[in-house]
Amino acid sequence: MPPLVRLFIRQGLFGLALGIVFAMLVVGFNVANLRHLVVKVEGGTLAFWLLAFFSGSVFGGAHIAITVMMMAGKEDGEE
Asked: If DSSP states are collapsed to H, E and C, what string results for the chain?
């Protein structure tokens, strides 16, 4: 597998993990009463996993974009 593809996969998985941690913190601190939604309402676990997946995809995309932008400066000899 080419190193660039490995880099994208690794950074995307790291961003996904950050998104899951973010979702856990949001539910744990009961932001906007989301803990009630997850615990008491039918389908609340689905809502949590959707929140975790979509925030993870956003964090993953942002992490990949930051990595690519940082690579551009290193190729030009800038720091």
From this structure: CCHHHHHHHHHHHHHHHHHHHHHHHHHHCCHHHHHHHHHHCCCHHHHHHHHHHHHHHHHHHHHHHHHHHHHHHHHCCCC
Maximum CA extent, the chain: 55
Of the candidates 52, 47, 48, the one whose C-alpha atom is nearest the C-alpha of residue 21 is 52
pLDDT score of 71: 86
pLDDT in tens, 16-67: 999 999 999 999 999 999 999 899 999 999 999 999 999 999 999 999 999 9
Phi/psi of residue 5, each to 5°?
-65, -40
Cα 56 from Cα 8, distance rounded (Å): 14
Q: Which residues of 18-30 are buried (b: 16+ CB within 10 A; e: fewer)?
A: bbbebbeebbeee
